[in-house]
Design goal:
Layout: E1 5-7, H1 12-17, E2 28-32, H2 42-51, E3 55-58
Parallel strand pairs: 1-2, 2-3
Length: about 70
């Protein structure tokens, strides 16, 4: 199986609504976000993916330095 790594950008939510995301395994979606700061729409995007039947998987977790000291995230 092959899929794509999606970047949270201006049209990502539209792709979710249209169910046009490439998946791997059992409907997993690999996504990433800016490395500088958490996007304001992150929780909404994750919720939208789950409501559409996708299973979100965050790529490159080691790169998000803004979360390194926030263990609750």
């Amino acid at each position: 199986e092959a899929a794509a790594e999606y970047y949270i950008d201006f049209d990502f939510q539209e792709k979710i609504k249209e169910k046009k995301l490439l998946t791997f395994g059992n409907n997993y979606v690999l996504f990433e976000m800016p490395f500088i700061g958490e996007p304001q729409i992150l929780n909404t995007v994750i919720f939208d993916m789950q409501m559409a039947g996708y299973k979100p998987v965050l790529a490159h977790v080691e790169r998000y330095q803004f979360w390194h000291a926030d263990y609750e995230k």
